[in-house]
Amino acid sequence: MFLTMLSYERPAAEGVTLLEVMLVLSIAAMIIMMSVRYYQSANQAQQVNAFIEQVQGVTATVESYAMGGGYLSATQTAITPLLPRNAFVTPWGATMGYSPVSDGYTLSISPVPAPAVCSLIQMRLQSDTHYVVPSNCSSVAYNTTR
């Protein structure tokens, strides 16, 4: 009798405990949160890169056109055929208005981008002294005399 009690084995537990389920769910929730944040930052970076390319395209077109008759002759009607389609629509769906000035141009943006996108735009464009971007990113001014 003594030997049989020592060799007694408990039956194996079936299923998982509540603690194990909670652990798996919390790990899954953390992974989902991190992937959403990564997606948002990647999306913002893509929008900024596309916008910078648009502004640089407009700048190159205006510079080329202005060689023949000055910046005031580079109206939106004159330069639009020289730009890609939707050159005045931002990656976040806003429209840009173009106005020439005597020594450059101004792009007005409405509606303005999200604050995180705006700060990235300011950082990237203001590294070139020819561009001026206000704190709310409502416009981009290009000035050749700066």
Kindly summarize this structure in a few lines.
The protein is built from four helices and four strands. By secondary structure, the protein is of the alpha+beta class. A four-stranded antiparallel sheet has the order 1-2-4-3, with helices on one face.
How would you characterize the overall build of this protein?
With 146 residues, the chain is an alpha+beta fold. It has one domain (18-143). Helices cover 49% and strands 14% of the residues. The chain has helices at residues 2-6, 18-69, 76-79, 115-125, and strands at residues 95-101, 104-110, 131-132, 139-143. It has a four-stranded antiparallel β-sheet, with helices on one face. Strand 1 (95-101) and strand 2 form a beta hairpin. Helix 2 (18-69) crosses helix 4 (115-125). The longest helix is centred in the N-terminal third of the chain and has 52 residues, at 18-69. The protein is rod-shaped. The protein starts with a helix and ends with a strand. The model has no long low-confidence stretch (mean pLDDT 89).
H/E element string? HHHEEHEE
Q: What is the overall shape?
A: rod-shaped
Number of domains: 1
Question: What is the tally of helical segments?
Answer: 4
| Radius of gyration (Å) | 29 Å
The level of helicity is: 40-55%
Largest sheet: 4 strands, antiparallel
First-residue to last-residue Cα separation: 100 Å
Strand coverage percent: 5-15%
Uncertain segments of ≥5 residues (pLDDT<50)? none
| Integer average pLDDT | 89
- How would you write the strand order of the largest sheet? 1-2-4-3
Which structural class do you get from the secondary structure elements? alpha+beta
